[in-house]
Amino acid sequence: MSRKGNQLNPSSIRPSSTIPDCNQKRRSDMTAPPPNPKPEKRRILEMHAVFLGHDTRGDNKISIRHLGHCLRAMGATPTEAMVSKHVRQYEASTMQRISFDEVMGIYCSLGKHGGISSPKRKQIEADQLYPV
User: Fold this and answer.
1) Residue 3: is it exposed, middle or buried by C-beta count within 10 angstroms (0-12/13-18/19+)?
2) Which of 15, 24, 50, 72 is surrounded by the fewest CB atoms within 10 Å?
3) Spatial distance between the Cα atoms of 67 and 117, rounded to a whole number of angstroms
4) Where are stretches of biased composition, namely Polar residues (predicted)?
5) Residue range 56-81: average pLDDT?
6) In CATH, what number does 41-113 get?
7) What are the distances in angstroms from CA 106 to CA 13, 81, 121?
């Protein structure tokens, strides 16, 4: 900073965050990745229709045994271990059927395994279906 008398020169004042420092991490490096965002309303309605396709009793719930199939039909790509973990949790609480809200909670918690596949993943899947 430079001073003229007792006055500070505003052009020489810079916030500390703009001055690079070897020992200082950038702010973006220190934040956690955002959680899987909640899907838009249109997408939620589509997923609800898929969910209802797995409802065999008409009580707006599905068997926990159909959880993996339902999540995959909704566009998620959970591993068998992830599905088994959730199934065990519901079995431990003696719940055999779960609601759409509970399935959506699981869907949103899947992180990178939830939601629509990335364009690269879609291309890989298309190449497997239609080899050249």
Assistant:
1) exposed
2) 15
3) 19
4) 1-21
5) 93
6) 1.10.238.10
7) 49, 13, 21
The rounded distance, in Å, linking the Cα atoms of 2 and 8 is: 6
pLDDT in tens, 85-129: 999 999 999 999 999 999 999 998 887 666 555 555 556 655 655
What ranges do the domains of the chain cover?
A: 41-113
Tokens read off for 83: 């599905």
Give the predicted TM-score (pTM) of the model.
Answer: 0.58
Q: Are 122 and 129 in contact (CB under 8 A)?
A: no
Cβ–Cβ < 8 Å for 114, 74: no
Give the Cα separation of 119 and 125 in Å (integer): 10
